[in-house]
Amino acid sequence: xxxxxxxxxxxxxxxxxxxEGQHPCPMTGAVSPAIFQTSTFAxxxxxxxxxxxxxxxxxxxxxxxxNPTISKLxxxxxxxxxxxxxxxTSSGMAAVCTNLFxxxxxxxxxxxxxxxxxxxxxxxERDFSRxxxxxxxxxxxxxxxxxxxxxxxxxxxxxxxxxxxxSKITDIEECSSVAKKHGAVTIVDNTFCSPILQRPLELGxxxxxxxxxxxxxxxxxxxxxxxxxxxxxxxxxxxxxxNFLGGTMDPHQAWLVLRGAKxxxxxxxxxxxxxxxxxxxxxxHPAVDWxxxxxxxxxxxxxxxxxxxxxxxxxxxxSLKGGIEAGRKLLENMHIATLAVxxxxxxxxxxxxxxxxxxxxxKESRQKAGITDGLVRVSIGCEDINDILEDFRQGxxx
Length: 398
Ligand code: LCS
Known about the structure:
The protein has 15 helices and 12 strands. With about 400 residues, the chain is of the alpha/beta class. The protein has 2 domains: about 250 residues, Type I PLP-dependent aspartate aminotransferase-like (Major domain) (Aspartate Aminotransferase, domain 2, 3-Layer(aba) Sandwich), CATH 3.40.640.10; about 130 residues, Aspartate Aminotransferase, domain 1, CATH 3.90.1150. The chain has a 7-stranded mixed beta sheet, with helices on both faces. The structure holds ligand LCS. Ligand LCS binds next to helix 4.
């Protein structure tokens, strides 16, 4: 049901964000999609039920396996990413785990970005290792590290770029080709960019995934995820795993994300415009030790970011000269920016990765990945930039 029959590839991205996979209801003319809040779907006959289960007839069966409201969102994101089809999941972590379950067997090996979102790393290190999966976390921002980590049993390369929260960039094209050479599947977590700023499938990745809790929904009111593979083969494999594993979306959740996704282009553009100004402001502030933002020339991979991304995004990491104590004071003295984890919403959020989003990693793993104790991460929102800058000015003065 989720196959992408998009015919809008020639339209501009702001148009496609609004229209891909969307059309008025043929029965009622309703422009906004209906919420099919049902767990199951009636068959016209026993033969039809059997045919649907056998995959001989298209149609819905049971919401864990597909639902018309969820399909609308799946078609939209799959078209924007340029994939075969989409699979909505209950959370970004459900998308991560479905991918790992689908592609890894006991005795297999996975290579992954060392500064993955904390829980993504933990499920590999703590949980999949219990089932005999081997792993190597490397600095994927240098493709030579990816090549060196490959083994004869490597089945998966899992990349997060820009990485959370270091903003290190991994060359998707180059690393996917290394993985391909070794017969491994490349999965890219595209949460930080959304398809507005980066489309990994166009760069050679096999699967792209999102925490739609972030930019795609964008309103800090839903937890959700999405998986989009490039090929039909991977789609079937992932869909089957998701159907049985059960990390499916709920129709109402899908409807909320669909509503948020309509303004994805507008929001990402505005957040990014603000972030470019905020990053320059922070870089020049005397209390700031360093800033990592792909839109600053001081970013070690500024050129790569320009090549593979359509913009530097809205996530900034920085460290204060006063270290962790100065960082704590800043977090507690911002008035517009909210002290909270998560990112990609309309409001500016600020947090401390070492004690919050990445607290589940060992201190040693954090240090190795560049997640220092003084690092502060901010997700710039859509507010008036003058208010954001003033908030930093007064927070840093404290
Ligand atoms: N991937 C990335 C890159 C993320 O940043 C997150 C959540 C996930 C996957 C998991 O998605 P979820 O299950 O939460 O929808 N990142 C968070 C963060 O940085 N702060 O709070 C959550």
